[in-house]
Give the backbone structure.
Amino acid sequence: MGRVHFAVDGHIATIVLDNPESHNAVDAPMRAQIEAAYQRIDADEVIRVAIIRGAGVGSFCSGGLIDSYLEMRAFGPGGSGPPKIPRPHGSRKPYIAAMLGYALGGGFALALACDLRVAGRSAQMGPTGLKLGAVQGAQTISRLTRLIGQSRALGVLLLSRRLKAEEAEQIGLVHEVVDDGAVFNTALGWARTVAEFSPWTVEMTRRLVYEGQHMPLNEAIDWEDKVALEAYRRPEALEGFTAFKQRREPKF
């Protein structure tokens, strides 16, 4: 049985998937623990950003543990279907995936759901659904298509491709590729940067990106203008611009 470790350091939460015998595949107890961590992150106003990683120097996550699928009778007529690996969908706060080794199937979906992704040179990622006689699901198809476009998404999905880190970076799936030993420190550096910003401005920036893409361009621009005006009227902007003039760090 695997487990999930959860820790908070200042404004940064870290979720660690720990099931090394199965490349950090997620079983039913781990899914519940991940969901509990997400709820804690959303509810705790001290937490501003979260990192998801695999335990040790092994894999990020190889998806769901197949034995648990069999135990819950997921397959066949009347089957319960694929158990969900909880994802930061709809969260008010940004998530960073720190990826080593395998990020496959549901683990690939988990990485795609994060806002930022850093990968070690050992990382390999991709869908596994078609190879197993299943549709990938877990929001993979919807998210992948929005991230890299229809043509590239079809190439990855229909060929069930396993992408290496450098190729994933080239097509926009990964924001940066670093040496394996630098993956977590890079993610932590990003998290510290985000944690220094105003939580409201980070939340609204994310919303403008994710929700604005579904609007007609003129409506998205109009909404962005309204949010920008509101931001200037809030105390954070006054503090930020005042700090800049005074040559000091702002306090948000």
Q: What stands out?
A: The chain has a mean pLDDT of 93.
